[in-house]
Amino acid sequence: MAYKITDNCAACGSCLPECPVGAISEGDIYVIDPNACIDCGTCADACPMGAIVAGE
Length: 56
Fold this sequence. Notes:
By secondary structure, this protein is mainly beta.
């Protein structure tokens, strides 16, 4: 399952350069494209807010 970004996102941008497939888009909070996500978890590891979780 793809990772997802929760409402805890502070839009700090720490995750953006970590995604090897460019599945993260900027916005008020960042969003992960579930069709592009390869489930690697590097974004979750980079998030200082703990706002990125494995999808269900």
